[in-house]
Amino acid sequence: MSRKAFTAEGAVSVGPYSHAVEADGFVYLSGQTPMDSTTGKIITGDITTQTKQSFKNLFNVLKVAGLTSDDVIKVTVFLTDMNNFKAMNEIYAQQFISPYPARTTIGVKELPLGALIEIEMIAKRKP
């Protein structure tokens, strides 16, 4: 199976991985933390600020792949504090329209570089 990789200027990799890979019409987006692409550092701020930045980074990757939030079919959210769920969910709800993508939210002990949140997505290219 062949893979096509996408790299977005508005997203940063902190390891040996692609921002997204396409296979068989599905585009798998690597998790994005709230990293500022100009500084290479996690932005300071609360979960609301960090959630917005994570989505900004993800949507930059979608754009490079020729996709939009309407093409997203599955989202996984990783939170270091489940007490942040409500605030994250309020920002999340603004990123998509109904019917919303399937989603899983997982509480984790920690994330790279001290991020409060990381989000990954799967999108499907229209035939």
Structural class: alpha+beta
Assign a percent range to the helix content: 10-25%
Strand arrangement, major sheet: 1-2-3-8-6-7
Quaternary class: single chain
Mean pLDDT: 91
Detailed description of the structure:
The chain is an alpha+beta fold and about 130 residues long. It has one domain (about 5-125): RutC-like (60s Ribosomal Protein L30, Chain: A), CATH 3.30.1330.40. The chain has 2 helices and 8 strands; from the N terminus they run E-E-E-E-E-H-E-H-E-E. The strands form 2 sheets. A 6-stranded mixed beta sheet has the order 1-2-3-8-6-7, with helices on one face. It has a two-stranded antiparallel ribbon with strand order 4-5. Strand 2 (about 20-25) and strand 3 form a beta hairpin. Helix 1 (about 45-65) runs parallel beside helix 2 (about 85-95). The radius of gyration is 14 Å and the shape is globular. It starts with a strand and ends with a strand. The mean pLDDT is about 90.
